[in-house]
Amino acid sequence: MPEVTMLEAVRQALFEEMERDPAVVTLGEDIGVYGGAFKATEGLLAKFGPERVIDTPVSETAIVGAACGMSYLGLRPIAEMQFIDFIACCFNQVTNFVAKSHYLWGAPVPMVLRGPSGGGVHGGPFHSANPEMYFVHTPGLKVVYPSTAYDAKGLLKSAVRDNNPVLFFEHKFLYRRIKEEIPEGDYTVPLGKAVLRREGSDLTIVSYAAMAHTSLAAAAKLAQEGIEADVIDLRTLLPLDRETILASVKRTNRLLVVHEDTRTAGIAGEIAASVCESAFSDLDAPIMRVTGLDTPVPYSPPLEEYFLPNVEKVAAAARELAKY
Amino acid sequence: MNQPLTREQHLDLYYYMQLNRHVEERMVRLFRQNKIVGGLYSSLGQEAVSVGSAYALESRDWLAPMIRNIGALLVKGFKPRDIFTQHMAKYTSPTQGKDGTSHFGDLKTRHVVSPISMLGDLIPVMAGVAMAGRYLGQKIVAMTWIGDGGSSTGAFHEGMNLAASQKAPLVVVLENNQWAYSTPVAKQVPLRDLANRALAYGIRGMTVDGNDVVAVYNAAREAVNECRSGRGPVLLEVKTMRMKGHAQHDPAEYVPEEMFDYWKARDPLALYEKYLTVNNLWDAKKKSEIDARIESELDADQKFAEESPLPPPEIAEQGVYCEGCHTIKAEWRRPLAEVTPPASSVEAVWKVSDFGAIAATPPPVKLSPVISHPAKPHAHPGKPFAKPAAKHAEKAPAKPPAQPSVEPDVAEAPVLRVPFGRGPKDKAFRQEQQAAQDQRNKHRRRR
What we know:
The complex is a heterodimer.
Chain A: E1 3-5, H1 6-20, E2 24-28, H2 44-48, E3 53-55, H3 60-72, E4 76-80, H4 91-98, H5 101-105, E5 112-117, H6 132-136, E6 142-144, H7 149-161, E7 166-171, H8 172-175, E8 179-181, E9 195-198, E10 203-207, H9 210-224, E11 229-233, E12 236-238, H10 242-252, E13 255-262, H11 267-279, E14 288-292, H12 301-307, H13 311-322
Parallel strand pairs in A: 2-3, 2-4, 4-5, 5-7, 6-7, 10-11, 10-13, 13-14
Antiparallel strand pairs in A: 1-8, 6-12, 9-11
Helix pairs in contact in A: 1-7, 3-4, 9-13, 10-11
Chain B: H1 7-32, H2 47-54, E1 62-64, H3 70-75, H4 80-87, H5 122-136, E2 142-147, H6 154-165, E3 170-176, E4 179-180, E5 183-184, H7 185-188, H8 197-201, E6 204-209, H9 213-228, E7 234-239, H10 257-264, H11 268-278, H12 284-307, H13 427-446
Parallel strand pairs in B: 1-2, 2-3, 3-7, 6-7
Antiparallel strand pairs in B: 4-5
């Protein structure tokens, strides 16, 4: 099996889905001749042509709206946000039009809205955001945020085949930094299922995307100190796989949630509430969280490093928890 | 060229306009009886817009109404009971009580996309519908409406621009009813004819009298034909007047009385009834037959709505996601081989012919009105644009001269491959373009 980057895994998923089903089309800014700002759509235009790989004007609302309209005729459009930060420009179209369509009048919107997200690459406050929670708070959408090349490909394929609008976040720090062997040919990873990446009995660390890697690195470090952690990678944020989290917490009795997104009303809050509702008596310690700061993502490297969670911050919180 | 309307079609137009008005009259009564649980918006005085434009579509075509386009829904085959139950939040309504007003649609048979309250958002969506229809080879046209106020939104611009740059078969009916809630059109847009916005998108714009249903139909038909032949979107401005407030709660005291008087004298139904009589298209017996049919339909549907139950509370929780309740399947009307490799493959390079240099003598930008007076086999008996009493309409010409629409200056887009349908490489299309250009040159010389 060949080793591929997460970016290549995304590209393969797009390519294979377009090859599999002519109802799959892509649209976005600079995705055709240029191949996308990160080259995730490279080679698609040459193969599938301008009717299926549509270079649009710089118009996020029009991109999402058109994708929605296309899906009403049975197409499965994949729209790209050049940077996921720009999804703010089409917030209304996503949250009011796309998300409510099936609930209100029974019109499914089988579209994918994907784009590069996240910090750690000195992109500054408008190219580093993690806006996932705006959309996790929007019934009708599904929100996916993979951490590995294998998952990125399998989840993106599932997203394309899903009958609902799926927001697919691709962490740009991981795009070219992780490489792994993935099977050649078709496979899918189901939406809405978290995965246990590492087993340990002392505490549960729940995370996703780039912070799943940070959490695993922290768990490896903690293991040397005799603290063994379960590490759960959520993979899908909406619907949230509460069962996997609860099953782990019932074994370890301690919970740490790690995310890069800002702290207040990040998904850690929702997870903490769910665990308190369903497994309060299993807890031996307060639920802790390590998250981005409640600030925009700053530009200068020392500022951004200060903003982001890292292995040290995660390990320190885990040690605190283990003391209970 | 438009086929003239038959007698039956003329009577159809009357039926739908009268039905539109009577549905709404009944809803006003239901509202006063507290049987309509939310807001009620009126399209009184605008029936010719909804009916005339939607009537220009074929059944395969798609439309997305706005709040004052109940007439368009009726033309597309929705029944008065759908509108009554929807407003009364009944379980039998198209949305089972999950939304009200004209916020409902039907993808499968009527090809109607539901609006949302945020203005402008339908335009990019319908651009996507038009693009998908073309891609699938369905030869459909998409139509939607937007108010003068809604045309101030960013979504309107983004949607128009995308549709134009994609040459999508989309007709946008800009329903200029003079008022956006309480704000007059002059405070929305510093243009007299909003169709002139078409110039900025490089598409065709037309302005038509929105209270003349035949004129609206003819203009819409022309726009639909243009779209279907692959010439890209059309912006059709219809000038009309909102004869009530924004909604039932709004007495519209901000509208000058004289303005209501002016437009009341141009009531689209009264004008059309006179037109049918003068042109011998009906008699008193026919009229009372149609009116009686409408009343009995409305009696039955109102009864159905009033007797319908409210929804069971637990359905509030259902249907957020499609969990296998829909089978999604595109209806292909062209060979799949055309859109799959190797036929779909291209050389991925831009072929740029225009280097973007400033022309030695820039073409003058014209903002003259683009009033379109479509073919009129039967002249209108009413007095179009009679001397207005209202200050707002002072500049309205007594009888606007027929003018060809202003053709915008369009940059040549770098084309990778001729899209499906008739494109610039089509010989017949080129000849038609040339003929149209010659025609325009002739007009210019004459002026």
